[in-house]
Write a structure and sequence with these properties.
Blueprint (H helix, E strand, L loop, with lengths): L11 E3 L2 E11 L6 E3 L4 E6 L3 H5 L6 H14 L4 E5 L6 E3 L6 E4 L14 E4 L15 E6 L6 H15 L2 H6 L2 E7 L18 H18 L9 E7 L11 H6 L11 E9 L8 H8 L1 H9 L2 H9 L3 E8 L13 H16 L5 E5 L8 E2 L3 E3 L6 E6 L2 E2 L2 H12 L5 E6 L6 E8 L2 E9 L13 E9 L8 E8 L10 E2 L18 E4 L4 E4 L2 E8 L1
Parallel strand pairs: 2-22, 4-5, 4-14, 5-9, 6-8, 9-10, 10-11, 11-12, 12-13, 13-14
Antiparallel strand pairs: 1-2, 3-19, 7-8, 15-18, 16-17, 19-20, 20-21, 21-27, 22-26, 23-24, 23-25, 23-27
Helix pairs in contact: 2-11, 3-5, 7-10, 8-10, 10-11
Bound molecules: 2-acetamido-2-deoxy-beta-D-glucopyranose (7 copies).
The site of one 2-acetamido-2-deoxy-beta-D-glucopyranose has 2 residues, from strand 8.
GO molecular function: hydrolase activity
InterPro entries: GH, GH79_Enzymes, GlcAase_C
Organism: Neolentinus lepideus HHB14362 ss-1
Length: 528
């Protein structure tokens, strides 16, 4: 129905900038709209440095606070995935307390490389008790080395840790075990030979999963359950690695396959080790985001037809731990919001944004860094732990979805390549909307920063409907700025990750509409 409403694109030369005029047509009551959790934007952690994220002898309070902000806003137990590439380079040794890592030398393009060999010990997994109470955890074990004993010992240590009194007291649970990371790439990275295919993968996965499920009686427990897939790419059909291919190979018909509850897919928008303003604009582009995400629709349909959940278990802007001057910028925050909210419309229930210490695309840098994330150069003084621009996207999405426990989100249709929007409902009633302007306003631009005027029209206004709205803005100086953002005048760029500053919002009649600047997000909260 919405797409049939013609949008008006009216370019008006007004003073020194141009105003496009758009109409937002927002149903007052949720029509068919996707249900959404405030944990839509969640994290995935590279496990080589897990002990730095968590803290060893005491919790890492910066990381704790950054997560706790989200828990408080969303009112729901958080989700976190831990493992990733390092999970296939990890073994267990009962004589080690936390972990021992072997790192390759860093380079200009990879200032913070992943460890090539990780050995974890008896207190490693239990550090999960340092995260906010009630966190729902999904942890990976090693399939890459085809060492069943390693996967068995890791699973045993995981179950022991999650049954320990400090973790149980927190209400923190191990929801999923993931067996192998991006196994579709094993024949490219030397973990398997050229005969590797979905049928052989399914055979090995069943072998490992059977051992783990039988050894620890996963059939008789509420959790953990198992993750399926976790592939880097998809063939979108049975012709290569995809959910369809492994289902066709019988994974769900196996005994441990009956424990799969969620299929995980990984996705990056591309791989660029160098950045530019053009690359940033391309990342943010509404059309790129839609093409990128919608291609997974056939996989999602198949997965959901088996009653399974579908998530992006590992995602972020660009591989190479991010493109410098792109992945670490405010423009990436705009991308994160539109990408994640659009994903909710295509049947993706959650996105785990991948993080590692010093990666360019992090939402959070949880410890001080002594070399540049951009080029590895030594810093005169270390930068303390801090949040990066994308952290604001997690805050904004969580706030917009809200803590009702019964939220829906609906994409608004704008006939404009730079404007996207979403309406948020609680118990079926319209509460908020986000309008996103994805035109990259770059540092050094000499033309004025344009503004789009958006009129708000309610569908079903015979029911009455709100007459006033509160406007809250994500203030960004430039799309390529790496700091200095404010959300409603407040900053999260503080030494403890807690919000600071005085909340600044504007209340206007709904009939006034709202001006949205290039590279900006506004949240409208409707007041009945
Ligand atoms: C990884 O490190 C452990 C402990 O130092 C060592 O025993 C093992 O051989 C190493 N594995 C590989 C594959 O290098
Ligand atoms: C699982 O594998 C481990 C390590 O090889 C072995 O000790 C254990 O007995 C196996 N468990 C079952 C149920 O087969
Ligand atoms: C497999 O892992 C076990 C447990 O850590 C270790 O003792 C063994 O050496 C590993 N096997 C190989 C071939 O690396
Ligand atoms: C690849 O490895 C498998 C399992 O070890 C083996 O059966 C197969 O013969 C190998 N194929 C090639 C082409 O080397
Ligand atoms: C603002 O809009 C005008 C008209 O569409 C365009 O010519 C100009 O380049 C835009 N300014 C920027 C900074 O994009
Ligand atoms: C962001 O805030 C600054 C300081 O209040 C203000 O000067 C600027 O106009 C704001 N930018 C936008 C795009 O609203
Ligand atoms: C804009 O670019 C100039 C020159 O490179 C730089 O000094 C300034 O800090 C940049 N401003 C922001 C907000 O990033």
């Amino acid at each position: 129905m919405l797409s049939m409403v013609p949008s008006i694109l009216l370019a008006l030369a007004l003073a020194s900038f141009v105003c496009a005029d758009l109409g937002a047509y927002i149903p007052l009551l949720a029509p068919y709209a996707a249900t959404v959790s405030p944990t839509l934007i969640s994290l995935s952690i590279e496990q080589d440095n897990w002990i730095q994220w968590a803290g060893t002898t005491s919790p890492n309070t910066f990381f704790y606070n950054a997560l706790d902000n989200l828990r408080q806003l969303g009112g729901e137990r958080l989700w976190i995935r831990i493992g990733a590439d390092s999970e296939d380079h990890t073994n267990y040794n009962p004589n080690i307390q936390y972990s021992e890592d072997v790192f390759p030398a860093y380079t200009n393009t990879t200032p913070y490389p992943e460890a090539t060999n990780i050995t974890v010990g008896y207190d490693y997994y239990g550090l999960i008790a340092h995260l906010p109470a009630g966190t729902r955890v999904w942890w990976g074990v090693n399939l890459g080395r085809y060492n069943l004993t390693a996967a068995y010992l890791e699973s045993q240590a995981l179950l022991t840790a999650f049954a320990s009194p400090p973790v149980v007291a927190q209400g923190t649970t191990l929801e999923y075990i993931e067996i192998g990371n991006e196994a579709d790439l094993y024949s490219n990275n030397g973990a398997r030979n050229s005969s590797w295919n979905p049928i052989e993968y399914t055979r090995e996965w069943i072998e490992f999963a059977t051992n783990i499920s039988d050894s620890f009686d996963l059939y008789g427990r509420t959790y953990p359950k198992l993750i399926g897939g976790a592939f880097a790419n998809s063939a979108f059909s049975s012709s290569g690695f995809s959910p369809q291919a492994i289902i066709g190979a019988g994974i769900l018909n196996s005994a441990p396959g009956s424990l799969i509850r969620t299929v995980s897919q990984h996705h990056y928008s591309g791989s660029f080790c160098q950045g530019s303003g053009g690359l940033l604009q391309n990342l943010m582009l509404k059309s790129t985001i839609r093409t990128n995400v919608f291609q997974f629709a056939p996989d999602i349909a198949v997965v959901r037809s088996y009653g399974l959940d579908y998530v992006f278990g590992e995602t972020n802007s660009y591989a190479c731990h991010g493109a410098p001057g792109v992945s670490n910028t405010a423009g990436a925050a705009i991308w994160t919001l539109d990408y994640s909210l659009y994903a909710s419309q295509v049947g993706i229930s959650r996105l785990h944004f991948h993080e590692g210490i010093g990666y360019k695309y992090n939402l959070i840098q949880p410890v001080a860094l002594d070399r540049s994330i951009i080029d590895g150069s030594a810093l005169a003084t270390p930068i303390p732990a801090h949040v990066q621009p994308q952290y604001y996207s997690a805050i904004i999405a969580t706030e917009a979805i809200g803590s009702s426990g019964n939220a829906q989100v609906l994409e608004l249709q704008f006939d404009d390549p730079w404007t996207s929007g979403y309406a948020f409902y609680e118990w079926g009633v319209l509460r908020r909307a986000l309008i996103i302007n994805s035109q990259a306003y770059l540092n050094g631009t000499t033309t004025p920063r344009n503004t789009t005027h958006v009129d708000v029209n309610f569908i079903g206004h015979q029911l009455g409907g709100p007459t006033e709205m509160q406007i809250k803005r994500l203030n960004i100086s430039y799309a390529d700025a790496t700091s200095g953002l404010t959300w409603g005048g407040q900053t999260y760029e503080t030494n403890d990750a807690r919000v600071s500053g005085i909340l600044s919002v504007q209340t206007v009649p709904v009939s006034t509409g709202v001006d949205v600047h290039e590279t900006e997000v506004v949240m409208l909260s409707f007041i009945a």
